[in-house]
Amino acid sequence: MNKRKILLTALVVIVLGALVYLQVRTWRKFDWQSFKAETEDVNVGLIALGVGIIYFDYYLRALRWKILLRPVCDVKTSRLIAPTMIGFTALALLGRPGEFIRPFLIARKENLTMSSQLAVWVVERLFDVGAFAVIMAINVLISPGLRDLPGFAGGVKRKIGMFHLSSFQLFEVFAFGLLLAVLVGALFAILIRRNPEGTARLMERIFGKISPRLGKGLSHRVHTFGQGLDTIHDFSSFLQISGLSVALWLLIGATYYCVTHAYGDMGPHMTLSSALLLTGASVAGGTLQLPVVGGGSQLATIGTMVGVFQFPKELAISCGMMLWLVTFMSVIPLGLILAHFEHVSLRKLRDESHVEEEKALEEG
């Protein structure tokens, strides 16, 4: 391991320790002996199963990308696995600056344009958001057991306009909102697919009145999105991509189920529905990121385990950190090995992909 990797690992450990310390400070009382005991008693087999599920998730992501590439080239899923895992390794180590390494690597490996792969990436994100929103919403609406969770049962009602809603009822309103947002997004996507040029001009005309730069930027992104939608060349592909997207997020929920059941004091209280709720909290918290290690996802997961499930603080922190390691950081060892065999440097890829991204947006 070279000095740069040692420094990066040390930075991850320091920031992770800082996050734990700040969380512990907010509680004032924390039993480190209990935290140690909870962590030492974890079921290693279930943790390994969780890592295996996450690795299989990367295979499904490569398969989904292959389907999206059908209109332009016929590529084997196996050729996309290395770029996929290297890309997620870059995201884990570099944060948002590593986001576009995956489409850049695929474009370079398959002799495609960066703009075409950015379009695929945009459509992939659309399906991710849609599938995640639908799963979370249905989970809240059809799982009566969630209503009985300690943090929801007998909760104080809050006044929202003319209505007084409990904490769980607020979740139900949010679930309906998610379904509505997915519907609106789908209708907007249909509009763009039918007339991408016209929709792009409309966005530029409307938002250009606020800021010419904003209008032009939105126009470019709508145009790129329209290009991406061309990757769905028939209804069969749409169903395959939708099915894979739902499977991806259900498997992530299954990973949360495995990791929480690795803790003897937590497993008996965690159903798959509860694990999916915890997954939703993690993703929502992930929108607030710190460089390199994120932060929002871990803290949201820990906060939900304490506030909603009312697990002990020591157990919540141990499990929250383990979930982060399994779902987000476990790709790093294999990703770095694949990067070595592919003869690529993450730092150089970050810079090159950023340049190509800017070029693609300008051309759009």
Q: Count of helical segments?
A: 15
Question: What's the mean pLDDT score?
Answer: 81
Shape: globular
| Helical content (DSSP H or I, runs of 4+) | over 70%
**Measured distance between first and last alpha carbons:** 41 Å
Point out poorly predicted stretches: none
Reading the helices and strands in chain order gives HHHHHHEEHHHHHEEHHHH
Number of strands: 4
Q: Biggest sheet: strands side by side, in what order?
A: 1-2
Rg value: 22 Å
Largest sheet: 2 strands, antiparallel
Instruction: Determine the structural class based on helices, strands and strand pairing.
Output: mainly alpha
Determine the strand fraction and express it as a percent band: under 5%
Present the secondary structure layout:
Blueprint: H1 3-27, H2 32-40, H3 44-69, H4 77-94, H5 101-109, H6 114-142, E1 158-160, E2 163-165, H7 167-194, H8 196-207, H9 212-229, H10 235-261, H11 272-285, E3 289-290, E4 294-295, H12 296-307, H13 313-329, H14 332-341, H15 346-363
Antiparallel strand pairs: 1-2, 3-4
Helix pairs in contact: 2-13, 3-4, 3-10, 4-5, 4-14, 5-6, 5-15, 6-7, 6-9, 6-10, 6-11, 7-8, 8-9, 10-11, 10-13, 11-12, 12-13
